[in-house]
Every structure is written in C-alpha cells, then in structure tokens.
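Possible race condition, two jobs.
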Amino acid sequence: MNSRPLISDYENTTVDSSAIADERDMLDEGSFQQMIARERKRTERSNTPFLLMLLDLGHGVPSEDNGKVLGQLLSALSSATRETDVTGWYLENTVIGIMFLGITLAEQRSIPATILERVSEILGNNLSSQQFKQIDLSFHLYPEDWDQEARERQANPAFYPDLHDRKRKQKHLLLIKRVMDVIGSLAALLLLSPVFAIVAILIKLTSKGPVIYRQPRLGQFGETFELLKFRSMRVDSDHKIHQEFMKNVIAGTHHDKTADGKKTVYKMTNDPRVTPIGGFLRKSSLDELPQFFNVLKGDMSLVGPRPPLVYEFEEYEIWHRRRVLESKPGITGLWQVTGRNHVSFEDMVRLDLQYVRDWSLWLDLRILVKTPGAVLLGDDAF
C-alpha cells in the first residue's frame, strides 16, 4: 500500500465542490479530518481496523472537464462503498478521501483492487497519459504495522491531519517553546559545565568504557534519534533484563514494592548492570544531563513525554502510542513531578496525554519549576 505523506500545502484546482456534492454526500475538509481523528481514537480502544483511501487529483484533471470526470469518479466510488463508509475532501478540491470502516481481513485485500480497477478505467477514458500520471491513488491501513521491518519509518501522517492542523494553529506558541528550549538548554549547559566535568572524571575512574552512552529512542511520530546519557551501566551489558522488566511493567504484571513494602515501584531497584557510580547518577538524575544537547539539537524539548526505547514501543497497546505520536519528547514532564517511579505505566500514559491535551507555555513553566524539587527531594528515584 502506498503511504506517501500527503500533509503539505497544495494549490487548489478549480473544482466546483458544490456541484460535486450532489453526486454523493461528501464531507468538507474539516469534517472529514475530524472523522479520521475520531475513528483513529475509536480503533485505539476497539482494535477494529479501518482503511483510508486517498485520491490525489493534483493538476491531472483539466478545469474544463473536472465536473464531468469527478462526477464519474464519485459515482464509481459510491458503487464500491457501503453506507457505513465515509467520503469527503481530505484536502479541499485536491484530495478525495474515503474511510472504509470496520473492514475484515478479506476486505483489506479486495477493496484496493476493486477501487483501483474502477478509478483507473474512468481516468483512462477521460485523461491523457500525461494527465493520468499526475493522479495519485493510495491506501492506508490503521492501526499501522510497527513490525521489525518498520522500525526505521515514521508514523504515516495521513492518519494525523488533526495533529498537523493543531501544529499550524499553535505555530507561534511552539516557536516560543522552541526559543525557551534553546535558551534553557544553553543556560543549563553553561551553568552545569563543572558538574559535567566532575561526572565525566568519576565515570572514567570507576569503570571502563565511554563517558557518554548513546541510545536509540523514538521521538514524535516515531522518528528515531540518539538519546545522550552519562553512562551508568557496564559496557556490553545484557539489555534483555530490562526488556523483560519493561514488558511486565507495560502489561501490568509487575508488582515490586519498595523496601518498606508500602509502595509499588515501576523501576528496576537492583539493576545488576549498573556501575557503582551509576547508581548515584541515576538516583540524582545526573545521568540525564547530556540530554540538554538533544534539546539544543531539536530532537527533544525541555518538557514533554519521555522518549521510549524501540522494544518498549513494540509492547504498547494502540492507545499507548499516542504519547509518542502527539508531542515532542522531553527531559521532564507531568510524570516526573507527579509520582515518577510510583506511577503505573498506564497512569504515566494518561499523564502524558493530559499534558498534550492541556499544553500551554504556562504549564511548561510550572513543570520546569517543580522539577528540581521532584529530583532533589523525591524518594522514588533509582
């Protein structure tokens, strides 16, 4: 299935949308994109897939023939869809979209073939070969398949027009947030430079290996980047220990308690991979300091959900993925200042989604102010 990104600025073709609407009950761009967001969230809970078809007209349909050709197209599409399917403008006057809802495995295979045959026949009879080449027909299945081979690709933006629209509307606020990130990270790197030097010396004196540990993480929309940390583990440690631990945490089958037995803790308290100085670095969160370079580079923000490891993401339920897709990852967030390692995984996800829903510059400032106290005075770091 073609999953070419379709979120971009298009020049409108001269299509009479009102005339076409009589051929089929089509939603306008805003309503159709809202439907995509609604069905995406419904699928997160039900795990019932839907198929999104996008017919990108580009400039392939000449203005003098667009009413006739589009009328034939919509008639053909209507005959290939059910009453429960939804048709609308994905991008007004440019990209037609159809959501095939609640489809079966057999329909996932048959629908694209049927649509392709009918659309190709109409376009072939009405357009020149050059015009035909400018038409793009693509199919996108949700939920997306984040299998082993898909690790390097980002999430398909066709499913997230609402997020891109929100980003456009908040572009001025996001620019201010970015300025805060740059100024904040530069200030931290300057003020904490003596700490960086001391920590680097301690790591070198107490264990073999590099000072900085580079770890692949997933950023917004699943984009992979290298997260920087002060190394707190022995070189060539077996990460299967942590992988199995996180699998249980995400599944909700981990129930370890603190030493006094009063609280459940969702962090490895006796990690055999950790060096002597590494335990102190983790408890004090000093191992996270190099991430200010990630913020400066733009991979992360000062405030946002923590970026997951790839093998953690592979254990996520569909709705868990929203914490990765909907916001740039951060050094600190609601989770860190609310309960940190005593918060269950699902509650952590809910806090991240609450942050995305309620985000404001003021919220970021409140979290940043609370973070030092949560780190220095908290008793739940390991």
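Job #2 (started ~2 s after job #1):
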Amino acid sequence: MDRDEAKGIIDRIDAACAQAGRVCIMEVCGTHTVSLFRSGIKSLLGESIHLISGPGCPVCVTSQGYIDAACELAVRPDVTVCTYGDMVRVPGQVGSLESQRARGGSVEVVYSPRDALTMAKQHPDRQVVFLAVGFETTTPGTAATVIAARGEGVENFSILSGHKLVIPAMEALLAGGEVPVDGFLCPGHVSVIIGAGAYRPIAERYHKPCVVAGFEPRGMLEAILHIVRQVADGKALVENAYGAVVSSEGNAVARDVVDRVFVPADAVWRAMGTLPDSGLELREGFRAFDAVGRLGVEIGPDVCPDGCLCGEVIQGKATPAECALFGTACTPVEPVGPCMVSSEGTCAAWYKYNRPAQPGVEKA
C-alpha cells in the first residue's frame, strides 16, 4: 500500500469520525499491537481514534501461579520442561525458566508440541512436560500431539495446560464495564480457527462492532474504517476484512481435534481472576497426559509483582507509559512483567516503537 492509498483510507476514517466522535477500539491480538506500531498506523490516525491493547498476548495473560509451577517442575531431577521461547524469560516468584536452567534445571525451547513428544521418545528415563500456552491458534497442535502420544503409547509425555479462549475474555472485559470500548479489532490468527461468526454474541449482546483483520496496513486500516462507520451509524455487526484467510465458520477440522481432547474449564487470567469456561482442560480419556495429576505439581495463586501494571495493560485500563517501572526498572533486558518479555507484549511494543522521552509521558 502506497502513501496515497493510506491517506485515502485515513481521510475516510476522519470523515466517519466527524459523525461518530471519538472512537475507542481495542485490538485483541498482540500481533495487531505490534503491527500497528511497526507500520506507523498509530502515528497517522487522528485524535478521534483511540487504540488500546487487550488480553491478546498468551504469555501476558498466563497467571503467575502457572509460571511458578513451570519453574518448580524445571528443577526436578527427572523432569524436562519444553516450552516456546517467549515463556523462558517470564519472571516468577522464584525466578524465570531461564534462571532455573542456569541453576541446573532442564528447560528446552521447542517450536511445536511435536518436538516435545519427540524428546520424550528419545529420553524415556525422563518426564517431559510441554507448557501448553496459547489461544485457539495453537491449541489444535497440542491436541493432535496428545492424541499421538496416546496412540504411540508414550508414557513420559504430559502437558501443563494453560490454553485460553478469546471470547470469554472479551465478554469479561465488557461485563466489567471499566473499559469504554466502542469496537473490537478481532484477531486474524485466532479467527482462522474459530471463524468470524464466533464474535456474533459480542456484537449482539453488548452492541459492539467486531471486525476481523489481517496484519498488513491496508487490512488494519480498512477494519478500523468499518468499525468507525458502524459506530457512526449506530450499528454493531461482525465484519470480516480478512476474507482471504478467515471464513465465517472457521476451521471445523481443527476444532473437532480440540473438542476430542479438551473440554472448557474455568481458568485464571493474570490480574483478571478466574473466568468461567475460559480455559481448556484434558478430557477424562486423556487425563493421563495432565502434568498436574501425573507429577503432583500445584498451580498456586496469581501474584502480581509490586508496582507492575501488566494486569491493567492487558485489560486496556492503563498504557505502559503509566507504569512507573516502564523503561526504568522494567526493560526487555531485565523485565519485571510478562508484557515486556513476549514479542506480542504491549510493553515490549511500546518500548521498541513508542518509548516516551520521559517515563510517564505518553506518546500514542
């Protein structure tokens, strides 16, 4: 998209804002947060568009208790913890997985749960635990791997389930009424699995426009235009600006695999508390692959680090610049909270693309 095309869409957004007034849009996906900064869209939009980040970073919404349980497993002499790379440096109460590895713990970075299963087969003398963290995008891979583990009779492989569901989190934010969201920029990756139609309850029950978008500048700008026009017209519809990839019904095959292995369950979200049916636990026939039951690890309470506003940031209640730790005590080199660790974290995005000249002075 060239400059003239971008200006044309932005002019139409400004025209719609003249009727709608100031519009607050939450980007639910962490990749959207990064893409909006990297493409320069945030700096091009006028003051009538207020973009805020939501609970769309799977690492950021993972509770402190889960991190602590993973760290406790990592130092057991007969256990190897396998994880995606962005979980390694998330601080827990006793350190991170990185620091546990430095103390002699067994922590391996993998690219997929299948890699963890392969490691379990190669090391039958060790219990291999995969940290199953992520939204609907990564859950089918975990489910397929658990099915394969049972089919192949691999008895030393298990998962610590931290999978989350997007829709319950969106509903919880709206039900709380603390964040004045006018519409949602819905996640492209997740929507491939759940389908654009999954957002209809949000649009109908809470009267909030929901527009699915990809991650290129044109797609995101067009999605923002759709949201603003709906607000101006007093509508609340589900629209799909990522039709090349996302369908209304989503990927039924992937969802069937997940439904075969998992069942919705209450889950603890960082700083948001326990949200009903917002997570996934293994069904009865697959409980043998649950690390909690097999290894007796306890997932403790969610404890926020002193002074850290990650919990407020992922709910759109605060910006990173409003956190006293941002850019001073908390940096990508020495993070205090997960929002500064993950590549999809809002604080990491602000630090890289939007760091204020003075702490506490907001740019975007």
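Residues 68 and 93 are 6 Å apart (CA to CA).
Logs attached separately.
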